Amino acid sequence: MTSSLSDLLMKALLLSCIALLAFSDAAVAPPTGITRHYKFDIQMANATRLCHTKSIVTVNGQFPGPKIVAREGDRVVVKI
Ligand SMILES: *[C@@H]1O[C@H](CO)[C@@H](O)[C@H](O)[C@H]1NC(C)=O
């Protein structure tokens, strides 16, 4: 009898832990969202336009940088 009671207590504790994890995760990103990963390689480059050279910030060798696509609820991780 006492072992089944402790079993029940363990299960209840486990369930409450899982519920807490699900809740805290939902606060950061809804369950429907996905995580999108981007890697940005930042470099300075000299650009010459109309006989005038200036230093510009490029992302992955591009200016302007790449487009970030995300939908509502998504999590975007950008590694720079
Ligand atoms: C840009 O031009 C300057 C002056 O010519 C030079 O010192 C610098 O190294 C150049 N930077 C790059 C990223 O090429």
TrEMBL record:
<feature type="domain" description="Plastocyanin-like">
    <location>
        <begin position="42"/>
        <end position="80"/>
    </location>
</feature>
<dbReference type="InterPro" id="IPR011707">
    <property type="entry name" value="Cu-oxidase-like_N"/>
</dbReference>
<dbReference type="InterPro" id="IPR008972">
    <property type="entry name" value="Cupredoxin"/>
</dbReference>
<keyword id="KW-0732">Signal</keyword>
<comment type="similarity">
    <text>Belongs to the multicopper oxidase family.</text>
</comment>
<dbReference type="GO" id="GO:0005507">
    <property type="term" value="F:copper ion binding"/>
</dbReference>
<protein>
    <submittedName>
        <fullName>Multicopper oxidase</fullName>
    </submittedName>
</protein>
<dbReference type="Pfam" id="PF07732">
    <property type="entry name" value="Cu-oxidase_3"/>
</dbReference>
<feature type="signal peptide">
    <location>
        <begin position="1"/>
        <end position="29"/>
    </location>
</feature>
